[in-house]
Structure formats: structure tokens, C-alpha cells
Amino acid sequence: MECTKEVSSRLDAMFLLDAFVPSIGDLADLTKQKYLFEVRRFVEFLDCQGKDSPASIDTKTVDRYMAKLATSSLTRRSVMVAASALRRYVKFLVEMEALEASVEVDFTSKASSNKLPKVLSKSRLESVLDQDRSPLVTQEQEVALARDLAMAELLYGAGLRVSELVGLDLADLDRRTLVVTVLGKGSKVRRVPYSKKAEQALSCYLVGPRAELLAGKPQTEALFLGTHGKRIDQRQVRRSLVKLGLGGSAHALRHSYATHMLDAGADIRTVGELLGHVELSTTQIYTHVSKERLMAVYGSSHPRG
Description:
Elements: H1 5-14, H2 17-23, H3 29-48, H4 59-70, H5 76-95, H6 107-111, H7 122-129, H8 139-158, H9 162-166, E1 173-174, E2 179-183, E3 189-193, H10 196-206, H11 209-214, H12 234-244, H13 250-263, H14 268-275, H15 280-284, H16 298-301
Helix pairs in contact: 3-5, 8-10, 8-12, 8-13, 13-14
């Protein structure tokens, strides 16, 4: 946003920038210039958000701004400078009693969030998930493999969090439409399509291996079971992924899902909804990993759809 002198003066007065400048008099001249520049940029953002006074600043707004910077083309150092400047500005506003001291802003984590998520390549996923692992030594190994492949395909095929995966019940799968009902963060329920490859893996697991895991044990509606016939836990899922050769991070599969969908041209807002993101800025980090920009929808764009 470019400001005229009149707009700049108006914002300076509205957000107490004239009083803020003397408060940073202890800093070196170059640092003062940088801080003032960053605070003015933040104030312009506030103006665009319809904020008209320091009292209107809240944690959510500042977090959104820092996420915007972290996913921009700015270097990590530049974002950290902006974070330092805003930290000083908020402290000044609190001291002036223009802002509630209860407003908490975690600048550090937001400024560091431009670290790109780990993403597995399509070729790596295909080589691992389609690998011929027969014959296995024991029936127990075959049962575990069927379950582990089903979990990996569903994590990647629907972009699930590991906590969402382990919470699934049999009734959460609509195998006719290939849609899974997920209980996400904040107890929010969403319905997510999953891939045909995931359905094939689920069929292999549900046709026999799940019953073998449950044999002689109390019945349960849990979709994925551990070796004792109870609902599998997150630690067991990570161990299973390691055995498959996918590393111990279930979240890497979720990151890969998002990135590969965007690579194929899926709309960022749609991907955000599928992932269960509340803020668009949370999804935008994946646009920095995504390089191919083709046009498609979920059914044709997902690599294993």
C-alpha cells in the first residue's frame, strides 16, 4: 500500500507514531529508521483491515500480519527485524495505556515460520507405496503391512493429521463416495475426499487383516488397530511409517498432499478447507514449495487419485 503525505500524517497521528519515535531514541540511527519503516508498514496494514486506533489491535490481527510477512518474499532476517520493531511498538503502546497489556503476540514463532515444510517427492512416495514387498516371512508381518500401507495412503490421500487418523472409526469412511469424516482441531468436523489408491489399500486392510488384529479381543469401532486389537496410537503410526521407509513424520505426508495438490493447480482456498485450516495464511506456506502450476480439480490433480 502506497501512502500519500496526507494519509501518512493521518496514520501517524491515529497510531501515535509521532510519540513512538522519541521512545526509540536510544537506538542507532539506522535501526531507528528500520523500526519506523516497519511500524509504518504495519500501521498501513491495520488501516487496510479497518483498524482506526491502537486500541483496535488484537493478537489475531498481529499474528495474521506476521504470518503474511513470513510467507512473503522477505528474507528471514527482514522478518525478524520487523518482529523486533513491532515488539518495541506494542510495548510502547502498552506503556502509553493505548493498548491492553493482556494482548499477547508471539512474534518469534511467526517470524520463524518461513521455514519450509518437509515435502516428499512424488517419485519417492510412489516408489515406497507401490514397492513389491512379497513374500513376507510371517502372517503377522503381512497383516501389519496391510494396515501400515492403508494408514500411509490415507494420510497422504486425504491430507490428514496423525491425530485425526488415529481417531477414525469405521463409520467415518464413506467408501461409496470415497469421503472420510474427520474430527479436526477445535473439535471441528470436516468431510474430505480421499484417493482411489487409499481406497484400494483400505480394502486390502479391511478384507482380512483388521479382523486378524481383532481376533479374540473385545470389539471396537476404531478403524486402525494396534497389535493388541485396540485403537492404534500416534507413536505406533510413526513407527509404522519408519518401517515403510517414509521416515517418522506423518506430517510430512500432509505437507506433501498440500504441495502436490497446489502443484497440479488446485485452488489454495480449497486446499486450505480440505486441510481444515482456519486462516488462508496457514495454507500459503505451501505456495513457496509448489513449483508446477497446472489446472485441475481434486479427482484429476491428486497424484494417486
